[in-house]
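Entry 14. Two folds queued back to back today. First construct below, sequence then structure tokens.
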Amino acid sequence: MNKRYFGTDGIRGQANSDAMTAEIALRLGLAAASYFRVNSHRRHTVVIGKDTRLSGYMIESALTAGFTSAGMDVNLFGPLPTPAVATLTRSLRADLGVMITASHNPYEDNGIKLFGPDGFKLSDDAELEIERLMDSKVGEALAAPSGIGRAKRVDDARARYVEIVKATLPRQMRLNGLRIVVDCANGAAYKVAPGVLWELGADVIPIHNRPNGLNINEDCGAVAPHDLSAQVLKYRADIGIALDGDADRLVICDESGHIVDGDQLIGLIALSWKKAGKLSGDVIVTTVMSNIALEQTLEKAGIAMERTLVGDRYVVEGMRAVGSNIGGEQSGHIVLSDFATTGDGLISALQVLALLVNSSKPASTLLSVFKPAPQIQRNIRYNRDRDPLSTDEIQSVIADGEKKLNGKGRLLIRKSGTEPVIRVMGEGPRSVVFPIVDSICAALENVES
């Protein structure tokens, strides 16, 4: 099942090259419209949101041209988080939702994520069929002159999403007295995130909330939370919240400046929901990247943990398969299916803040759910035209590493599905695992040189 355009999280590439040209976006609009326009007796609607990348204007215009030329009406949200697009697709009874974003990638990249009318990301079969339509005679999807779609801006999309997010807290819950630093990553939530927290009563200190089209994720946000830590200490905040470029990822900083990853947050929410009787099936879903100590801690509390491939889409599929309402990734994608169909950094943050308010404990105490097993991850960039993992040299180094571990830890070496990077992760005794990871990375760099 080889895909030409779609990866693990939609279509992604460098703007104006690869699969991220206006032409590809236009063809995608035509093909997706053809796929979703199943009833010729009514108008069909697509909603489109985007993050703050400069190239978003180009991709948005091309997609709009494709959809309207195929007879679909287009509702344009402007900058809005990915989970907002997923939620509003279902809320507004749209046939299709589109988010223009490359998530945590730098501004040079962009991407397109598609959501079905149920608010969930598309299946592999749906993506393959859309690809087939993209490469066929897309002109056959063109509407008659009288059937061309209309495009309009939806001015209240942000306000709708804000109310949806606030409603995930108990009705009387307030954040009064909490001082919160929120790092918006110069991305899609630069207005929404500070607004939600302020309306709930918090003393809000927003940072990296001035996007210019070129600074999204630049030394900020969930992928680079060092400034969040510094600002929490500077302002003596109770807690810090970092989102990524499209706000589907969350990383938190406690009052001491310590960064807390998704594993700790998933564990915290799972244990609290278990205690409250809200955890469906007493099971959660994470990926192969999650720390083994999380699994051991949950097991002691009577909570099972299922692992999937990396990617929140696979997490959601796993959750639906086992009937779980909590899933996520160490990187900060947290899916709470009672409230959302995909990872939502802001909704996840509110669940943590509610626990902080009710516990009367400092964040550093509340968020220390388990002691992680030593884990290291390094990223090695590679040429897309080559496959260094298939070489005898790399396979030999990996096999040697597994032999040295001798069952006392684990290695996970994989290609990223969103950028030309090989991720090398090792977990186990530091004195054993870290040198093994170093040797694998050195070998990969040598193959690429």
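Second construct, same run, same settings:
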Amino acid sequence: MNNYSQYVGIIAGILTGVSLLPQLVKIIKEKKANSISFGMLGVLLAGLCVWIVYGALKKDYPIIVTNSFSLLTNIVIVVLTIKYKDGP
């Protein structure tokens, strides 16, 4: 049963990790990020950092890897949001 729960965790982490990829692609294509909330991104980044620490404490590599990918994606979104805040 433990392997089954690990697979569920991996799938959940992958889906969470890729959830903001469409937003990232949209920002890159349009070079515009006027409606992105820094508050939401800040809370999300903090939560992802805590998940990574939690994964490290439990030595749970799926948690560490998937949340690290999410963190990287969100950092890129923050950088591009700052760069394109007022459009091209």
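Quick look at the second one. The chain has four helices and no strands. The two ends are 52 Å apart (CA to CA).
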